[in-house]
Amino acid sequence: MVLTVDGLRMRYGDTEVLHDVSFDAGPGEVVALLGPNGAGKSTTIEILEGFRLRSAGRVEVLGVDPAAGDERWRSRLGIVLQSWRDHGNWRVRELLHHLGSYYAPYATSAEPRPWPTDELLDAVGLTAHAGQKIRTLSGGQRRRLDVAIGIVGRPNVLFLDEPTAGFDPEARSEFHDLVRRLAAEQDTTILLTTHDLDEASKLAHRILVLTAGRIIAAGTTAQLTKLIAGEDEVRWTIDGRPFRKSTEDSTAFVRGLFATYGEAVAELEVRRASLEDTYLALVREQS
Ligand SMILES: Nc1ncnc2c1ncn2[C@@H]1O[C@H](COP(=O)(O)OP(=O)(O)OP(=O)(O)O)[C@@H](O)[C@H]1O
């Protein structure tokens, strides 16, 4: 396993913000930590990055406890934080070239490092802005640069904390392609956090739903849909009077409705439970 988290707990003072979090991830796997504000997503990712010391539990990243990771171990991680580190006066190409040079000592023949600057600029869609000063980039362009900084060392593991915040739909879709390519072609294991269920479903092989410091559901989008599938809603009127019923099997219910009321049933509507609805219901229930 590339990532192993077993019984992870974290406490800030008297407050426990992670309770017994466990999951793992293999090479080339994309895992999304999905949850509302304050669920503990950043805390989890920061512990795996070695930025925070956990209170309890076993954590291994590339076979190493992050609390004891050395420079060589660190060189195999890519990190994209939520907050922007300001390098305003640098130009995009210069900065990537400069940061990339730190990784050169850790190159192997199987894993050349760093990622050549021009190829990288192309991969993140910043070629046209390569000569621009960083403070003149738009929010979405800066975020692309954040991602480029995260992957310049061709990491084996990439941590992305809310990577697409501030992206327009096109940038988001290009970013999704990039993440898929990194996982499929470079076997990069990717752990990302997001509030966005749609993004998690599109990107991740596995989604972990975290609320209030606990993983309350985990699986592929299809498995989650099955696991937390809610009830459909059926609405209809009889003689102008509105009715509404929540049911797990709307087809059987509608069949029964027609058997009983026949042609008196009008304005029939069936709304299937979406994963989004059930995810929101779950989160509300837990928080
Ligand atoms: N340094 C800290 N000291 C005390 N409490 C903290 C600290 N950092 C985070 N917390 C608390 O821990 C909990 C989890 O925070 P965390 O940032 O991990 O959540 P998150 O899921 O990443 O949220 P968001 O989506 O808002 O980024 C929150 O209740 C937060 O207030």
From TrEMBL:
Q: Name one GO biological process term.
A: response to antibiotic
The answer to whether keyword Nucleotide-binding applies is yes
Query: What PROSITE patterns has UniProt attached to this entry?
Result: ABC_TRANSPORTER_1, ABC_TRANSPORTER_2
Where does the record place the ABC transporter domain?
3-237
Report the InterPro entries cross-referenced here: AAA+_ATPase, ABC_transporter-like_ATP-bd, ABC_transporter-like_CS, ABC_transporter_ATP-binding, P-loop_NTPase
Does the keyword Transport belong to this entry? yes
Primary localisation category: membrane
Q: What's in the GO CC field?
A: plasma membrane
Q: Which GO terms describe its molecular function?
A: ATP binding; ATP hydrolysis activity
For this UniProt record, the keywords arranged alphabetically read as follows: Antibiotic resistance, ATP-binding, Nucleotide-binding, Transport
Q: How does this protein lie in the membrane?
A: Peripheral membrane protein
Source domain of life = Bacteria
Task: Please give the name of this protein.
Answer: ABC-2 type transport system ATP-binding protein
Q: Which organism is it from?
A: Kribbella kalugense
Output the lineage of the source organism.
Answer: Bacteria, Bacillati, Actinomycetota, Actinomycetes, Propionibacteriales
